[in-house]
């Protein structure tokens, strides 16, 4: 059925124009400047109409599986459905749900208890067509966990897996190169100093050996399946060189300007955290993502742990860095889509999927007023 959206500010790849967009059978059929007088045209009241957002890495699903410390929700599909609603409400139409294969602490990490259920819930929701938006899987490979191989093996080759990231959270490496930052983070999570130090010692002892074995294993597994690889928390030029040697196609969350520049020079597009942009800096001692944007080495944004941060970051970057609105939107639409190889979405262009978000900004706050996923109105 034909749908006409008019009196809209269309966020095109190279500009924002006042115009009309027509979609039919799940695809964009026409884009034109000016208003439509056609009967049944929907008046967008001057709202922005942008491509639906594409999310490469969100941990939000996990929050609904573990809503409080020590509480694992007993209905996995129900948890996934609430996550789906929240992502849709943030303007996202394609989401790579990040699920952890392995954990920081092989003996006590709750992620092992929920990992398989999280994967099954996403696969069930897709198979039963009960989600509002398009869900894919992003396997976060925690290589510092000695049990990683047995955790990940059942899920390699699953059709929904769109991305795998190589993660090393060994204390003293990458994101946690500064042990004082990690100790402060751990005590903020509820551990006392003595317990934090004991856990740090254990993780440092076990992590290095596990990473040495698991890194080449993960690279081989996902290369064989043709799944794109992302590095995680590149901190130094040496980290980037290791990622390039592994065949990574993306540098996720570089923690320093040095690493982001090295990634850019090596042809690895970078993904920064949108919460970092909204807060004005990192919660764990890393570089401010606005600094990467100013240096021209930021290629995309991820909501990470706050779905609503994507659109807030778009607004903030136009205000603090001076980015054009269409360029800021590209960080959460066309660029992440390109990173994942999704050529059919992420832009307002004739023939692409009708994934659309209608919104306006109330000063600094984005207000999502409608969402279309593959031509279907879901909000």
From TrEMBL:
<dbReference type="InterPro" id="IPR032466">
    <property type="entry name" value="Metal_Hydrolase"/>
</dbReference>
<feature type="domain" description="Amidohydrolase 3">
    <location>
        <begin position="204"/>
        <end position="360"/>
    </location>
</feature>
<dbReference type="GO" id="GO:0016810">
    <property type="term" value="F:hydrolase activity, acting on carbon-nitrogen (but not peptide) bonds"/>
</dbReference>
<dbReference type="InterPro" id="IPR011059">
    <property type="entry name" value="Metal-dep_hydrolase_composite"/>
</dbReference>
<dbReference type="Pfam" id="PF07969">
    <property type="entry name" value="Amidohydro_3"/>
</dbReference>
<dbReference type="InterPro" id="IPR013108">
    <property type="entry name" value="Amidohydro_3"/>
</dbReference>
<protein>
    <submittedName>
        <fullName>Amidohydrolase</fullName>
    </submittedName>
</protein>
<dbReference type="InterPro" id="IPR051781">
    <property type="entry name" value="Metallo-dep_Hydrolase"/>
</dbReference>
<dbReference type="InterPro" id="IPR012696">
    <property type="entry name" value="PhnM"/>
</dbReference>
<dbReference type="GO" id="GO:0019700">
    <property type="term" value="P:organic phosphonate catabolic process"/>
</dbReference>
């Amino acid at each position: 059925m034909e749908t006409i959206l008019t009196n809209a500010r269309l966020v095109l790849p190279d500009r924002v124009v006042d115009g009309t967009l027509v979609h039919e059978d799940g695809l964009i059929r026409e884009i034109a400047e000016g208003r439509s007088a056609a009967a049944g045209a929907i008046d967008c009241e001057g709202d922005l109409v942008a491509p639906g957002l594409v999310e490469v890495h969100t941990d939000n699903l996990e929050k609904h599986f573990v809503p409080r410390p020590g509480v694992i929700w007993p209905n996995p599909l129900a948890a996934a459905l609430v996550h789906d609603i929240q992502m849709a409400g943030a303007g996202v139409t394609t989401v790579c749900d990040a699920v952890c294969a392995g954990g920081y602490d092989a003996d006590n990490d709750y992620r092992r208890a929920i990992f398989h259920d999280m994967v099954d819930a996403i696969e069930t929701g897709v198979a039963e067509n009960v989600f509002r938006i398009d869900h894919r899987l992003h396997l976060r490979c925690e290589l510092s966990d000695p049990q990683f191989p047995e955790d990940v093996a059942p899920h390699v080759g699953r059709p929904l897996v769109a991305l795998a990231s190589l993660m090393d959270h060994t204390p003293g490496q990458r994101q946690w190169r500064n042990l004082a930052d990690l100790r402060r983070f751990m005590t903020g999570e509820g551990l006392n100093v003595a317990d934090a130090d004991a856990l740090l010692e254990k993780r440092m002892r076990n992590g290095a050996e596990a990473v040495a074995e698991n890194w080449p294993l993960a690279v081989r597994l996902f290369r064989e399946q043709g799944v794109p690889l992302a590095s995680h928390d590149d901190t130094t030029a040496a980290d980037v060189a290791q990622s390039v040697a592994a065949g990574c196609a993306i540098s996720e969350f570089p923690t320093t300007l040095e690493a982001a520049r090295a990634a850019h020079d090596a042809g690895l597009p970078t993904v920064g955290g949108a919460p970092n942009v909204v807060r004005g800096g990192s919660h764990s001692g890393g570089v401010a993502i606005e600094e990467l944007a100013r240096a021209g080495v930021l290629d995309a944004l991820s909501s990470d742990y706050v779905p609503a941060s994507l659109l807030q970051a778009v607004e903030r970057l136009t205000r603090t860095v001076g980015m054009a609105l269409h360029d800021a939107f590209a960080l959460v639409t066309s660029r992440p889509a390109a990173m994942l190889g999704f050529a059919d979405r992420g832009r307002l262009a004739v023939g692409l999927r009708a994934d659309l978000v209608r919104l306006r900004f109330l000063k600094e706050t984005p207000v999502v007023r409608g969402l279309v996923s593959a031509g279907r109105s879901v909000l």
